[in-house]
Design brief:
By secondary structure, the protein is an alpha/beta fold. The protein has twelve helices and 15 strands. An eight-stranded parallel β-sheet has the order 4-5-6-7-8-9-10-11. A three-stranded antiparallel β-sheet has the order 1-2-3. A two-stranded antiparallel ribbon has the order 12-15. It is globular and about 60 Å long.
Length: about 350
């Protein structure tokens, strides 16, 4: 096997703000895994919260390049087990490699990832699109630009959170979900949940910090008027078990858990515990979105708007338009690279 690594800068359509910062350009790492004349694509974007930069992801992958040349490719799962031992400190890099391995395997065996897993593309949930933090008039303007999207996810974590949701509800009849990105206290969460429930909000994502005491998470779980979905609190496979009894559902992101291989196992574990399941994303190109979309037929909720927030694409794959997720075309993850942009 041979690995090709590309760093790509992706400008956003608009500045994207959450409770802990903002960006206007997203740096990402796109990899191509080659074997016997075939190739697969994978991606990992940098994230300051998870302390992964484009440089650190590239450095991790480069440490594996020589070993990859000596390994025989059989299945993505077999490659993941070996690579995880070398990349245990960089699950973003592991995710990019695992996505590429699934894409390569599917192309070799002329099947999509979701079909290989025994799924069909029926009754796939629609995706939300994100309104990021700004002034209320700016957020209303952004919301109006998303006309036709049936589900809106609103980033919160300000002193005006209730006023924001009231204003957005007055401006739209779309389903509203909120994401506090760890910004609230227990008291704020319970108070906001009651107010938001009266405004038709569907659920709250990650209100408390990931390292909040278990007792605090349990109080929120038991007293919230709305379901609570874990994001930052559910990163790896073992976290699913820890979320049981503290959250009503989990948000799986490939970069957090290390790719599709563990993501499918997390779905199995969550289903066995009666937890709702969701797939989320960073601001990513259609490489990573196409990989994450392979989970969609098994999910309760989908948040795969990352590529829709970009000004231009380095790849072509699964499209998310007005909430509808296009069926992956071709084999593997159904994505191809725009070489002129890399």
């Amino acid at each position: 096997m041979r690995l090709e690594i590309n760093r790509v800068e992706m400008p956003l359509r608009n500045v994207f703000r959450i409770s802990r910062g903002e960006i206007s350009v997203q740096e990402t790492v796109i990899v191509q895994l080659y074997d016997n004349g075939e190739s697969g694509l994978g991606e990992a974007t940098q994230s300051s919260y998870y302390t992964h930069s484009a440089d650190s992801i590239i450095d991790s992958l480069k440490q594996l390049e020589q070993e990859l040349r000596e390994w025989e490719f059989t299945t993505p799962e077999a490659l993941w087990e070996v690579a995880e031992e070398r990349l245990a400190n960089d699950y973003f890099a592991l995710s990019a490699l695992d996505q590429a391995a699934h894409d390569l395997y599917g192309k070799r065996h002329r099947t999509s990832v979701f079909e290989r897993k025994g799924m069909n593309w029926h009754n796939v949930p629609q995706s939300s699109i994100t309104v990021s933090i700004a002034s209320i008039p700016q957020m209303i303007e952004e919301l109006q630009g998303f006309a036709g999207w049936p589900i809106i996810k609103v980033k919160l974590g300000t002193s005006d959170d209730l006023a924001i949701i009231q204003a957005l509800r007055d401006s739209s009849d779309a389903v509203i979900r909120v994401d506090a990105n760890c910004a609230w206290t227990v008291e704020e969460t319970i108070r906001n949940s009651i107010e938001f429930a009266s405004l038709g909000v569907e659920f709250i994502e990650q209100p408390l910090p990931a390292d909040a005491p278990v007792a605090s998470k349990r109080v929120v779980f038991e007293e919230s008027a709305l379901p609570i979905i874990a994001d930052e609190s559910c990163q790896r496979e073992d976290d699913v078990r820890e979320c049981d009894g503290l959250f009503h559902g989990i948000n799986i992101k490939l970069c957090k858990c290390g790719g599709l291989t563990p993501a499918f196992r997390m779905l199995d574990e969550a289903n066995s515990r009666g937890l709702k399941t969701m797939v989320g994303c960073m601001i990513e190109s259609e490489v990573a979105i196409s990989a994450a979309a392979q989970l969609a037929p098994r999910l309760d909720y989908v948040d795969l708007d990352g590529a829709a927030l970009l000004a231009r694409q380095p790849a072509q794959g699964v499209k998310v338009q007005h909430g509808k997720i296009s069926r992956p075309s071709g084999f593997g993850c159904g994505v191809t690279l725009n070489t002129t942009l890399v």
